[in-house]
Amino acid sequence: MVAEDTVFSVLYEKFLFWGILVGAITIAWLLYAMIRYRASIVPDTTELDHIVVGSFPVDRHNTKIEVLFYVVPTIIVVWLVVLALASNTAVWVIPDDEEAFDIEVVGQQWFWEFKYNDELTWQDDARVSGIDVAWDIVDDNITIQHLSNPDATNVTVTVGTDSESHALDVATGSTIIEKTFRKFSSLSVVVEDSAGNELHRWGHIPLNHKLSTAAGDHLIVPCDDEVVLNLFSYTSDYSELNSTYWGVQHSFWLPEWGIKEDLVPGLEGGTVMWFMADDPGTFNIRCAEYCGLDHSKMVGYVDVVSPVSYGAEYCDVDTGVKKAGGSS
Length: 328
Ligand SMILES: [Cu+2]
Prior knowledge:
Helix 1 (7-36) runs antiparallel to helix 2. The protein folds into two domains: 7-92, no CATH class; 101-327, Immunoglobulin-like (Sandwich), CATH 2.60.40. It has helices at 7-36, 63-92, 126-129, and strands spanning 101-108, 111-116, 120-123, 132-136, 141-145, 152-159, 162-167, 174-178, 187-193, 198-205, 210-212, 219-222, 227-233, 250-254, 259-263, 271-276, 281-287, 300-307, 323-327. By secondary structure, the chain is an alpha+beta fold. A hairpin with a 2-residue loop joins strand 6 (152-159) and strand 7. Strands 3, 6, 7, 9, 10, 12, 14, 15, 17 and 18 form a ten-stranded mixed sheet that branches. A six-stranded mixed sheet has the order 11-2-1-13-16-19. Strands 4-5-8 form a three-stranded antiparallel sheet, with no helix packed on it. Residues 107, 250, 287, 289, 291, 295, 298 line the site of copper (II) ion (CU).
């Protein structure tokens, strides 16, 4: 389960533990009392003159147990409140805007749009694919190292909407493609085998770039970085984020990570959701608020990728979503 390290999952397990413990003791005690005081047993009433339903026997009682009846549940309830409040603090503290990776999410009827307020350069794990792509922004070229993957034969390079294919230099295992790559274009380099199967993908998302699930795009987020989503609901007519074209209520839901946040029309600052994903991979996006006829089609995917802007650091593969939260 990918969300196993989030505060929600930890909280769920703690509540489950205390719930089972208290339930087991209560039911055991109940069964014991049912058998011990069953109808066929004639009670010894010689010392019990003042039995009143709902109160402890006056003549034969145990003060210690009676006090414990109140003290133990009070401690458990206070403990659960402390647990819940502590996790609230972890969830509601939104990471700093300057350091986090910021994306605006706009929910429309019936698709999701993602606007990048930070740029992202990323690639698949070279340790897995045996292929490494390096972008030399000064010399205006890309170098593809593919010696470790003999299946790699072709590469498709896309700048904006223009794609071109090249054959790889299989003899040397290293191919340099001279290409004017601009930081403000969306770029992709896809290495393929001779049958056209994708072996390795490198990509660059420029500042202010928009992706949309209506066009089949995935939301792409870096691993090991705090990602802050600012969520808004607009109609399809919106031109800028402070327009008055409010849409309807949606809810952006990442079911595998156990997090969701409402998109509230009329809320000028929008709502906020954040997470720090660790596993690379593709995960589901759903709308969790009925928003009209095609609500069920308001689906998409989020890809967690390794950002290469900060050096060749790759995502860990086993620690799940570390943290997550939000605010409305
Ligand atoms: Cu919706």
